[in-house]
């Protein structure tokens, strides 16, 4: 088995965990590889790794069977597209504060890697969202797929915007306020929850639409089937509107554009060990006790 190790270089504690992962891999005769950018870190632990264990960012996904990702939820969100497209399952090692996408803690790292080698795990598939920006002249700009959410928000803080929502080609409602969140079940524990939306189990095949600080009596979140087609326009907004994909990518939604959102073709695969992990961790993490 070929193991990919993806540390969050901003978290300095990652270096010690990477060193431990390498020790475990070498003790079990496993191939291991890290993305080449890790070798540029000034931390001594990364400088000690032999050059043959580094692979370029664009080719490492074809070199590994599973990925060990160290960090918080944001670390996975930034790389979810690559892992999903390459069909590489992720085993997340939590170094963050919440870590809804993670199940493995650093204290049981060796045990969990042995479970993987013994086949004592299952793969959980997480739905993603695909969005296209469609221009009046017919040009289409595809945005990166979203694991959590696509946020249509204001470009100027404190300025009310108006966005029009259509579902399957039928106009539904104009929302004056701070914008809309279109999310997956995975994203239901994030911005959607903070904006008054429901929490959905990761296995629920749905798309959620949640207004952000809406004006009037429009604070009603929608839960749609995963095969629904969503369209958002901003032609009636006097203030600038922007689109954010998983908080990573930011793009202006001009009045002559239509944002088309649907279920993505790829899914993200997460390595899991406990069938009940989501419910057992939900309120612990939400209360900030973990």
TrEMBL record:
GO molecular function, one term: kinase activity
Entry EC no(s): 2.7.1.23
Enzyme class: transferase
Active site residues per record: 73
Keywords, ordered alphabetically: ATP-binding, Cytoplasm, Kinase, NAD, NADP, Nucleotide-binding, Transferase
Entry binding sites for NAD(+): 73-74, 78, 148-149, 159, 178, 189-194
Catalytic activity entry: NAD(+) + ATP = ADP + NADP(+) + H(+)
Cofactor: a divalent metal cation
Chief place where the protein resides: cytoplasm
Superkingdom to which the source organism belongs: Bacteria
Record's keyword annotation contains ATP-binding: yes
Subcellular location: Cytoplasm
Pfam families linked to this entry: NAD_kinase, NAD_kinase_C
Family under the similarity heading: Belongs to the NAD kinase family.
HAMAP family reported for this sequence: NAD_kinase
Main function: Involved in the regulation of the intracellular balance of NAD and NADP, and is a key enzyme in the biosynthesis of NADP. Catalyzes specifically the phosphorylation on 2'-hydroxyl of the adenosine moiety of NAD to yield NADP.
Name of protein: NAD kinase
Upper lineage: Bacteria, Bacillati, Bacillota, Negativicutes, Veillonellales
Gene: nadK
């Amino acid at each position: 088995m070929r193991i990919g190790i993806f540390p969050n270089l901003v978290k300095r504690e990652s270096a010690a965990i990477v060193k431990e992962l390498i020790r475990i891999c070498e003790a079990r005769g496993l191939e291991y590889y890290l993305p080449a950018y890790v070798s540029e870190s000034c931390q001594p632990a990364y400088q000690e790794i032999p050059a043959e264990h580094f692979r370029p960012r664009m080719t490492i996904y074809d070199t590994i069977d599973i990925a060990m990702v160290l960090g918080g939820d944001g670390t996975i969100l930034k790389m979810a597209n690559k892992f999903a497209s390459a069909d590489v399952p992720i085993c997340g090692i939590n170094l963050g504060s919440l870590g809804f996408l993670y199940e493995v803690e650093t204290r049981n790292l060796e045990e969990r890697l042995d479970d993987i080698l013994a086949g004592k795990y299952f793969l959980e598939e997480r739905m993603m969202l695909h969005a296209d920006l469609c221009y009046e002249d017919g040009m289409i700009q595809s945005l990166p797929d979203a694991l959590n959410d696509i946020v249509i928000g204001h470009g100027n803080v404190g300025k009310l915007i108006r966005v029009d929502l259509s579902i399957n080609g039928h106009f539904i409602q104009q929302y004056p306020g701070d914008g809309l969140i279109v999310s997956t079940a995975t994203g239901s524990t994030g911005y959607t929850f903070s904006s008054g939306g429901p929490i959905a189990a990761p296995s629920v095949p749905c798309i959620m639409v949640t207004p952000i600080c809406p004006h009037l009596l429009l604070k009603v979140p929608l839960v749609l089937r995963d095969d629904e087609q969503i369209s958002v326009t901003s032609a009636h907004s006097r203030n600038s509107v922007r689109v954010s994909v998983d908080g990573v990518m930011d793009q202006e939604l001009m009045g002559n554009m239509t944002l088309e959102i649907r279920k993505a073709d790829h899914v993200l695969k997460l390595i899991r060990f406990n069938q009940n992990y989501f419910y057992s961790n939900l309120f612990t993490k939400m209360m900030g006790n973990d």
